[in-house]
Amino acid sequence: MKTLALAMLAGALFALGLALGGMTIPARVTGFLTIGGTWDPGLAFVMIGAIAVYAPLLRLIRRCSAPLLAERFHWPTATAIDTRLVAGSAIFGVGWGLSGYCPGPALVSLAAGGAPVAVFVAAMLAGCALGRRLARDPG
Length: 139
Prior knowledge:
By secondary structure, this protein is an all-alpha fold.
């Protein structure tokens, strides 16, 4: 129960940060990704702020022998840049650029309603299911 409460608190804090940073507004994101016209640097500032908080904490956490609420850490082990990674990154980037949503802000925006974000979330979930199916049965 304690783990669930902390996870919900962390999710709420993340959602608040996305909303305060304007990342739930697709026009802010597409404004950042626009090469010509009026460029919106807001997303860059949000990313820089996130990295400034995360990087020192990661160094501190990596020194710990175990997390507070689990027996061990589950660090990523894959290091290869393969076709699956590149294809997944490309699909993510195209979806993000076309819609202005990435998964976190989309879920936060879903709470406010609206057909465009609902369609995006439905497509995202379908893509996740398809990706899992292809990972299980690649052939």
